[in-house]
Task: structure prediction
Amino acid sequence: SQELEQSPQSLIVQEGKNLTINCTSSKTLYGLYWYKQKYGEGLIFLMMLQKGGEEKSHEKITAKLDEKKQQSSLHITASQPSHAGTYLCGADKLGANNLFFGTGTRLTVIP
Amino acid sequence: DAGVIQSPRHEVTEMGQEVTLRCKPISGHDYLFWYRQTMMRGLELLIYFNNNVPIDDSGMPEDRFSAKMPNASFSTLKIQPSEPRDSAVYFCASSAGSYYGYTFGSGTRLTVV
Result:
């Protein structure tokens, strides 16, 4: 969707390194969702952020939503090969229960 | 819960044939969504339903595409006639409302030759 910009488009990191993926919207969002997709498979839900300034963590992955609810980041600490895949940010707007997506960030982790 | 169930997982068909993709949402989820994923266009929302009623079908590419939800536990996406450019992975997702998030099925990989 042109409404959600993800950066970078692809990322190659050495195992053990930290990395950050960004997702930006020009409009205020209701909810921001992060998914992971392995090649040829479905979308795995990672985290959902709905409050400005909210931050959530699960294992080595931390997601943040800015106060204006227009920008989110996904941070992976000490990356592992199991983190490899495409990370997608999705969002919906207040009053609209439909989810639209950014273009994705393809992550490769080199052992 | 078995999650969102899609069938078939893979479909190969000849151009001009009718294709029907099926989806069973999670029980209790009032919203059902159909998405298409391609390398060129990413994940696109085609149509979504609320309580079995189509709410927004603005993403449906052409009249060749149609979707139905005859009851709360079943939906179909039909393409007739199919064309090679319809080749993509089609995902179904369901939700109890945006506050609760969205759950995706494993997808149907459609190849039209």
